[in-house]
Amino acid sequence: DDANYKLACELASQYGVDAEILAGAKALEEVSSAPEVDAVMAGIVGAAGLLPTLAAVKAGKRVLLANKEALVMSGALFIEAANQSGAEILPIDSEHNAIFQCLPHDYEYGNFAASGIRKILLTGSGGPFRERPLHSFSSITIDEASTHPNWSMGRKITIDSATMMNKGLELIEACWLFDARPEQVEVVVHPQSVVHSLVDYVDGSVLAQLGNPDMRTPIAHALAWPERIDSGVSALDLLLTARLDFEAPDPVRFPCLRLAREAVAAGGTSCAVLNAANEVAVQAFLDGRVGFTDIPVIIED
Question: What's the 3-state SS for the chain?
Fold first, then answer.
């Protein structure tokens, strides 16, 4: 923190910025709970985002949640804090934002079944290795795993997408965000990333949110909610899209999905352990210390 503070002061001095300089984890908590702050975009990747996001929730802010690990690690504490403070939690992940848009306008937390909802269909592209031969997985390189076919994301999230642990974490997040049981959340592979997720109702209706794969759309939706603003994203051309494909995820190809389901079913600290093991395993892969196929083995162990 001292080193960060020194660098921040040097930067401010270099550019002649007259501002209070803050640095470190505690500074993030201070900023996210400051009285003059109305809305907090929680977009720090991994466990590092938990405490500043929780500070914003405890302060009763409108929290635009892009950090899924906060709910994965401490779902019960997170929701309890929001209920006590009156904080608004609006999902930014494209899938959870899509679910939010497809829920009834008067949906209240805890009324999943009472709202006539049968299940949530959580879509995922399947990542870059959806069709890659399984026998070649052991030779997957860091560069190959760091490239997503549809989205531009940070390296850690892109690796999670390649293993589909990202979808596993999103499944856990969906359970907490919408008060759904794990069996009420189905993961569907959708390579085009145009249908961002769906909600299945007991009367046979299935509502979907569609759009070009661009994070500006869910960000704009949450910033302006309940109004709508121009996000700068081009309109979806269905004729150009031409087709929408859906398939079940391959459990052999993507064992991380199973591990996420087992963790949320086990409850307690299991999801925090899952998330921690994944962060360590992914970093080890990025550091060149383990192979791609070692990631789920390390997590399961």
Answer: CHHHHHHHHHHHHHHCCCCCCCCCHHHHHHHHCCCCCCEEEECCCCHHHHHHHHHHHHCCCEEEECCCHHHHHHHHHHHHHHHHHCCEEEECCHHHHHHHHHCCCCCCCCCCCCCCEEEEEEEECCHHHCCCCHHHHHHCCHHHHCCCCCCCCCHHHHHHHHHCHHHHHHHHHHHHHHCCCHHHEEEEECCCCCEEEEEEECCCCEEEEECCCCCHHHHHHHHHCCCCCCCCCCCCCHHHHCCCCCECCCCCCCHHHHHHHHHHHHCCCHHHHHHHHHHHHHHHHHCCCCCCCHHHHHHHC
